Amino acid sequence: MWAVYALLSAVFAALTSILAKMGIEGVNSTLATAIRTSVVLAMSWGMVFLTHVQGGVAAIGRKSWLFLILSGLATGASWLCYYRALQMGEASKVVPIDKLSVVITLVLAFVILREPCSAKSIVGAALITVGTLVMVL
Question: In this predicted model, what pLDDT tens digit does every residue of 79-125 receive, in sequence order?
Fold first, then answer.
């Protein structure tokens, strides 16, 4: 089932890029990011209450709070940079560079999380990198 959600994530991410590029015209990129973030915040909390999991907030430990907050800050920084790049460049070039996050995630997962690194992962990361360069140059 995780693969279905991952595929849906990719579809929605693609829509996000196209819709953002269409909506950002004539709008300050920071303001556009704030609007998008407000919608995501409302949607996220809506799902929390709809699924009745709001009681779980009290059970979250300090370490989880720290890393969730840091993840939120990284997300915010990523979105601010992404919207600025979309405003300045072509979506067909910005998005592939943004998706290099897959390669960076593989490296960080190996270094920080000590996840296994297979030859298949290395080849895949190299192909993504080369593919990105081909699309952008």
Answer: 999 999 999 999 999 999 999 999 999 999 999 999 999 999 999 99
CB 95 within 8 A of CB 127: no
Q: Please state the domain extents for the chain.
A: 2-89, 99-137
Q: What is the CA radius of gyration of the chain?
A: 17
pTM: 0.85
Sign of the C-alpha dihedral, residues 60, 109, 98, 74?
Answer: positive
